[in-house]
Amino acid sequence: MLVRVQTEPFDAGAELNAFAQGHTDVGAVVSFTGVVRDTNGDLTEMQIEHYPGMTERAIGKIVDEATARWNLADALVIHRHGTLSPGAPIMMVATAAAHRAAAFAAADFLMDYLKSRAPFWKKEITSDSADWVAAKTADEDALNRW
Asked: Which CATH number goes with the domain that contains 69?
């Protein structure tokens, strides 16, 4: 199980290949990569802040929960912070399990957690404003199904 919080870009394909390598005891490897979305076409950049140490521990706890709940063989969470451009990879989740249902469910659970509970603060910068991203009801609803 690996959690990385970093400023550096990552190559999702290379990360997935490295993650999957050597997992001969699983039947499924699932991954998801999130990118910075420019919803209105005017996003200049997104700034992501976090508390080092606290963020990794919080994500690690939820990875441990997912691992126990779905009997994962392995899990990977990468989340970036700092200043990111539209279209840039912001996060990645990968899970490995004996069966695809468990790998998909665990990845979905981890993504819902990262979207609504992980201790990151996001600010969207446009040419005329800088606004903190507020929690969305849909994200809370997605997390509540677990």
From this structure: 3.90.1170.40
